[in-house]
Sequence to fold (390 residues):
Amino acid sequence: MEYNPFSLDIHIDPYPTYRYLRDEAPLYHNPEIGFWALSRFQDVWDATLDWERFSSSAGPALEIEVSVPMMIAMDPPEHNRNRGIISKAFTPRAIEKLEPQIRKIICGYLDALIERDSFDAVEDFSAKFPMDVISSMLGIPEQDRDQIRQWSNIALTRKPGEKEPPPEAIEAGANNWMYFQQYIDERRKNPGDDMISTIVHATATDDDGKERGLSDEEILGFIALLAAAGNETLTKFFGNGIYHLSRYPEARAEIAANPAVIPNAVEEILRYDPSSQYQGRIAMCDIEMYGQTIPKGDRVILITGAACRDEREYPNPDELDIHRDIKRQLAFGFGYHLCLGASLARLEGRIALEEFFKRFPDYTVDEDNLGYVHSSNVRGFTSVPITPQR
Ligand code: HEM
Fold:
């Protein structure tokens, strides 16, 4: 069986193929596209800790060339130094303080939908709030946020079956770049109380121990990573959750009646259908596994999406169980590159579900008009049209 992360079938439902990979080809090789893949929970978990053999230096996705320095495409010790520059802004404590601000953003969008007979849970809601949250942390003015969000989404979109970005994706990426370049210049002159000002004025320590300011390229790398990582993944998490909960009406009714179950439901939705499906690595030496050798320099992907459905870790993995006791979570990755925004994502995910279900405890999904993302590793819907039941 072929596994092609660019194919439309995989974007619609990768899970039967993942089962085949875990059971029959736990070290899978696709010579045409040029990658190896690990899919069993324990293999993926272990590889996230083994940066000396599974390096992140080639970037997170098969089709994305990393053109600016980004921590997601670095290994220790450079990675630790970079992550340290902004990690304080993402500790659970720092994130907790953002709750009122996040709730206000989320309620604003949901209140505008209350009178509507039907709306799109993704286009009209979850595509909007994550970028507002990250933009307000970065200090981007409100009037520019819609435009930045559109460019970020277009920049990540691929045509079904195609690996190379289409011209409109390249153009959108370039527009984002230009916008942020101007914004960095502005913040150098007039620092504010926001994350871009912190990054602009941060220092990095070189290998020889010398302290220096960050270059524009490095700053752009931070911004681009935060904007991309904090936007699409959460948008898709919410769409996936609303869709899957419509297939599990008992769980949905319980969430609506008892918001205390929401934090665990967030974990389970993330496990059941994670919006980030695989993490890119590169073999730093010949790696022997399952009787085969991954040659040094070959691309390897760690399919966290497949690991999250591994019955070797989770009983009945294909069932969505909002009370599941998840001892080890892989939806945010693990090890050195464990999602820096995990606390923020959990908080936004919880508030979004709490406020959504307060207003729309019951709804039907128009299954004929679901839209799917075409990306090799971001999984979810571009469109989940729903009709609230009053
Ligand atoms: C449901 C939402 C999210 C999911 C499923 C998710 C998933 C992931 C995963 C799987 C990784 C690991 C990448 C690797 O191993 O190579 C990662 C890394 C990262 N994520 Fe998230 N993420 C989410 C939300 C966010 C948010 C809201 C932010 C913050 C703005 C964020 C920022 C980052 C950053 C900066 C990294 C790189 C960390 C590093 O390289 O050390 N993510 N994320």
Summary: Residues 8-360+372-385 form a domain with the Cytochrome p450 fold (CATH 1.10.630.10).
